[in-house]
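thought: user wants a sequence for this fold. calling inverse folding tool.
action: design(structure=
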């Protein structure tokens, strides 16, 4: 399956919520990816222009976009700065 990298920012409300009630969201993200036929490879908090980076395998672009849109619909992600890139790693490594 193709590998997709998504990165973006949290809303200020999401940051306040994470500070007030810290929790590991890895399982929730993995479940979301699985719900559209994908698999979470890694999820990271980052510094700089983006707050987070997620790497996942999805069967196609529609499935990958569905997962990111579903996450953004929850209101914790800033839709204006989220990015979505398809990375053909197989062609780089073979």
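)
observation: tool returned 94 residues.
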């Amino acid at each position: 399956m193709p590998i997709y990298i998504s990165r973006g920012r949290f809303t200020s409300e999401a940051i306040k919520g994470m500070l007030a009630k810290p929790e590991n969201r890895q399982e929730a993200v993995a479940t979301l990816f699985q719900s559209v036929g994908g698999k979470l490879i890694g999820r990271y908090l980052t510094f700089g222009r983006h707050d987070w980076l997620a790497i996942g395998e999805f069967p196609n672009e529609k499935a990958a976009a569905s997962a990111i849109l579903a996450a953004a619909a929850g209101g914790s992600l800033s839709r204006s700065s989220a990015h979505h890139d398809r990375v053909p790693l197989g062609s780089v490594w073979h």
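thought: summarizing for user.
answer: Here is the designed sequence. The mean pLDDT is 82.
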